[in-house]
Amino acid sequence: LTNMGDPGMEANISPPDTAQQDSLFSMTDVFLISLITGLFTYWFFFRKKKEEIPDLPKMQSVAAPVRDSSFIEKMKKTGRNIVVFYGSQTGTAEEFANRLSKDAHRYGLRGMAADPEEYDLSDLSRLSEIDKSLAVFCMATYGEGDPTDNAQDFYDWLQEADADLSGLRFAVFGLGNKTYEHFNAMGKYVDKRLEELGAQRIFELGLGDDDGNLEEDFITWREQFWPAVCEHFGVEATGEESSIRQYELVVHTDVNMNKVYTGEMGRLKSYENQKPPFDAKNPFLAQVTENRKLNEGGERHLMHLELDISNSKIRYESGDHVAVYPANDSSLVNQIGEILGTDLDMIMSLNNLDEESNKKHPFPCPTSYRTALTYYLDITNPPRTNVLYELAQYATDAGEQERLRKMASSAAEGKALYLSWVVEARRNILAILQDMPSLRPPIDHLCELLPRLQARYYSIASSSKVHPNAIHICAVTVEYETKTGRLNKGVATNWLKNKVPDENKKNSLVPMYVRKSQFRLPFKPSTPVIMIGPGTGIAPFIGFIQERAWLKQQGKEVGDTVLYYGCRREREDYLYREELARFQQEGVLTQLNVAFSRDQAEKVYVQHLLKKNKENVWKLVNEGNAHIYVCGDARNMARDVQNTFYEIVAEFGNMSQPQAVDYVKKLMTKGRYSLDVWS
Fold it and tell me: Among 236, 242, 243, 244, which residue's Cα sits nearest to residue 107?
């Protein structure tokens, strides 16, 4: 062991010290080697255990099945050459996509509608592997120029992609609303971006306007789109115009009722056995703890509801939206059943005839006709032309059959008839059945054709800082008389009106989830805010003001909080009057400006009050870097308010009209001018 010492060192040490040194090294070396050996042994076994333990789940995860997300493989397997992707928030774009995919057979082609959320869109570069292939995109724009929830991943991919799509042939139809600032932004972006990536546009971009007549816009585009497809691929229409059923009816005579859907949106029995997280496919059943009328007079019913979200793990921010799934009026459902002579409690399934389709049923099945017509199908909106076309075959009276076919045609006379007799008269499916006595379709085909009943969105009227276990809603019931003398009622608002606090819970449960929004208070509480929200447009601002009051209580410096609110009459529909007065008294609400439009000869609206206080408004915006928020009607109010800001900016900023417009648009880009509007 002593030989382990450095020989050079030993040569310099005197003989008497050498023996002592040798002895010392021996003891130290033995101790060190024993220690190192022990540590090494411990480390070796410890290391083995640490490495081995996570190895087992890793091996298991490798074996886990991977979902096939290639639409190319599915198209090859099923002989399809046209894929129609849809970005849909309310179901309309999905409906248009289904109609286009069904159209394809008339031209000797085969189509499939596809949800972009379910597939890998980078496969678009491989579509040219299929003969006579084409990708069509029916893209709705949501909110302020945003993609719909199911098209978000596709939008993100398009922004980041550097793919070569030179072999791809495409066409786009956009669904938008001209009352919104960013009309058809998603459709325009997809059309432009695909071309930038090298794809070949085979037909011009279609721009549907829901503020006008979206159905007519789609039909007009479609009737020019298919001839362009025929010309491009050298194919001709086969002349087949016959109705093609997509689903087959299966009646269940002996069924376990525990396997039957009773209104759930996704998982069977999800309303009996609630499990987070809660979303569109798994809504939370919130109990209504308060439902009070807000207005003191007038014909309308304005209401404040409070939903209990305790134990749901649902989190929300001021400015978010709450979505609720309503139910159709039972009297309308019963009348449809009576007219069609149907046992509404029969248990049935509608099964997709295309076994390869991801969509096995048009709505959760098995279920009863009563459940389908109550919770799953839209029976109150005027049906689209494709529904009339498919139903025409069941009219035994030649005149009625011809009328239905004419309204479903692309002829000018037919479009005009559809517009006046269906759209403007607000005839829903029940009214059409009542006014056409010979039209008695099988109820299963009617259920196949009707669109899905959609969730309704409301701006949340509370702050989670103050109400962490509750979500507040402010809404007005919709009720009006049609040109035919019928009384039409809004599905969701009238359903909510009847939701009252109930100890038994049965009559007070609301299926809901939260949708995140970009409508947010400034990051710094000291930043001033100008809020403009007449009518129920005040909803998110009640949440904003509650939050600013909470921040003030926490000792934070809170900037000017200015509200411009409007209603018809002070003694009739001044919403949250007491709450607003209290906030103003406490100094949270710096300014409360209220326009009563009908309390004097000349109507006064919020934009008139903005003009009246224009100097103060400009000072807050220009010097205080205030954030501006507008909530309510998009068609008139939001536009008038925006024009007023153009005028104020032009006057006090010494700018021309185009410069003022550019200034306000830049505020929007920076997130200092936010809109939460509807039409």
Answer: 236
Q: Are 379 and 336 in contact (CB under 8 A)?
A: yes
Q: Which residue's entry shows tokens 């003398």?
A: 485
Fold agreement (71-233, 274-326+455-517): no
Residues with catalytic annotation? 459, 631, 676, 678
Q: Taking Cα atoms as reference points, which of 510, 382, 530 lies closest to residue 456?
A: 510
The CATH superfamily assigned to 327-453 is: NADPH-cytochrome p450 Reductase; Chain A, domain 3 (1.20.990.10)
CA atoms of 146 and 159, how far apart (whole Å) = 13
CATH architecture for segment(s) 71-233: 3-Layer(aba) Sandwich (3.40)
pLDDT tens track for 297-341: 888 999 999 999 999 999 999 999 999 999 999 999 999 999 999
Fold of 274-326+455-517: Elongation Factor Tu (Ef-tu); domain 3 (2.40.30)
Cβ contacts of 96 within 8 Å, gap of 6 or more: 86, 138, 173, 175, 218
Residue range 617-638, pLDDT digits in tens: 999 999 999 999 999 998 899 9
CA 117, 122, 123, 128 torsion-angle sign: positive
For residue 83, what are its two tokens? 């894929």
Instruction: Please name which of 514, 515, 513, 591 lies closest in space to residue 548, comparing C-alpha atoms.
Output: 591
Joined tokens for residue 248:
């087959």
